[in-house]
Amino acid sequence: NNNNPIIGYAVAFGAFAVLLPFAYPVQLSLYGQIPWWTCIQQRYPFQSIAVVAYIYIPTSLTFSSILFGATLLHRKVISENELGIASIIVISSCFVSCVLMQEIHLPNVSTQRVYLPCMDPSFGEEEQFWEQWVWEALDFSSHSRFVWSNIFGVNIIRGFN
Predict the structure, then answer these.
(1) What is the pTM of this model?
(2) Within the chain, what is the greatest distance between any pair of CA atoms?
(3) How far is Cα 4 from Cα 1, in angstroms, rounded to an integer?
(4) Environment class of residue 40 by beta-carbon count within 10 Å: exposed (0-12), middle (13-18) or buried (19+)?
(5) Which of left, alpha, beta for 63 (phi over 0: left; psi -120 to 50: alpha)?
(6) pLDDT means per 10 residues in the chain (161 residues)?
């Protein structure tokens, strides 16, 4: 059956989650190690640790578990629906837990902004409207702080440089 919507949802979730780790290497290739990454390391001294601990390791673990599930599907141990539902659960729980935990463990020395220019976009300048929009929309730190404070009652004091 090639028209299983659950597998489609799992692929969509997985594609979104797998694309996130590519954001920093793309920016690194566009802006360079010396000007861009050095600037980011000065603003957020533990950003390289956060990238490994909260992006690359969880992505590898999630991808490996999905491949293991695909092996079980191929051997007819589980169904397509079971693989799809398990994949959605693994991807979602890994993504949410990593976003929340990074904000608790590395709050002022790293950021979860997916788009990370060296200098913050200047607000109010019309020519930077799209850059400002992307910068704010892909700021998972602010979403995480909202969840921690409004749902769990944890106040994370975070100052941006």
Answers:
(1) 0.72
(2) 57
(3) 6
(4) buried
(5) alpha
(6) 76 77 84 88 88 83 88 94 90 86 82 83 71 84 85 67 38
